[in-house]
């Protein structure tokens, strides 16, 4: 029994035949599964996020022309996106002000993640167009993916699974708390 009188069940007592598979339970992802692909076809998540509270939009910092938020589908804990507020698809359409702020926010994001997440390195990048792997090809965004010397394991290779040790809200709060006041 737990403190709130709910019974914790031993999986050996449940119906079914045990197998060799391990399960990673990610109930927070159900909201995106149930929404289906339609919301992304009609609503740009990077245009919608700034209208939400920072908690709801997973935003960690706001600038004049761009902002920083957590990726809803992270490669690693602390995977950030630097997005312009303006809706456009490719880097060559950015104004000089947007280019400068995207760069500056990327630098700050790296410094904050080094401090907060104790990461050893980064993958930085922009996928320009669907053919190049952009999930939201219509709205430019820069990926800032923290990496650790010890983060390589067999999950992504064998099981196409990423193990994420922290919930998005916890990561957002830690990064936001570590972001310098400008």
Task: Please characterize this protein's 3D structure.
With 182 residues, this protein is of the alpha+beta class. The protein has a single domain (27-176), classed as HIT family, subunit A, CATH 3.30.428. Helix content is 31%, strand content 14%. The protein has a five-stranded antiparallel beta sheet with strand order 1-2-3-5-4. The chain is globular and about 60 Å long.
Work out the helix count: 7
Instruction: Let me know the CATH homologous superfamily.
Output: HIT-like
Shape: globular
> Architecture, CATH level 2?
2-Layer Sandwich
The biggest sheet amounts to: 5 strands, antiparallel
Under CATH at level 1, the class stands as Alpha Beta
Indicate the multimeric state.
single chain
H/E series: HHHHEEEHEEHH
User: What number is the mean pLDDT?
Assistant: 83
């Amino acid at each position: 029994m737990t403190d709130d009188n709910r019974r914790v069940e031993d999986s050996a007592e449940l119906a079914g035949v045990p197998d060799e598979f391990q399960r990673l339970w990610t109930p927070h992802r159900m909201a995106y599964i149930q929404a289906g692909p339609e919301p992304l076809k009609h609503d740009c998540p990077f245009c919608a996020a700034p209208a939400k509270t920072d908690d709801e939009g997973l935003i960690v910092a706001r600038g004049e022309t761009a902002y920083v938020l957590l990726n809803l589908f992270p490669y690693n804990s602390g995977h950030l996106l630097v997005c312009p507020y303006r809706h456009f698809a490719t880097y060559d359409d950015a104004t000089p002000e947007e280019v400068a702020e995207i760069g500056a926010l990327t630098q700050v994001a790296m410094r904050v993640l080094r401090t907060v997440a104790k990461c050893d390195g980064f993958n930085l990048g922009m996928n320009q167009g669907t053919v190049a792997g952009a999930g939201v090809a219509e709205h430019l965004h820069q990926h800032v993916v923290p990496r650790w010397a010890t983060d390589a394991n067999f999950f992504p290779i064998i099981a196409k699974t990423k193990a994420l040790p922290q919930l998005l809200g916890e990561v957002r709060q830690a990064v936001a708390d570590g972001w310098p006041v400008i």
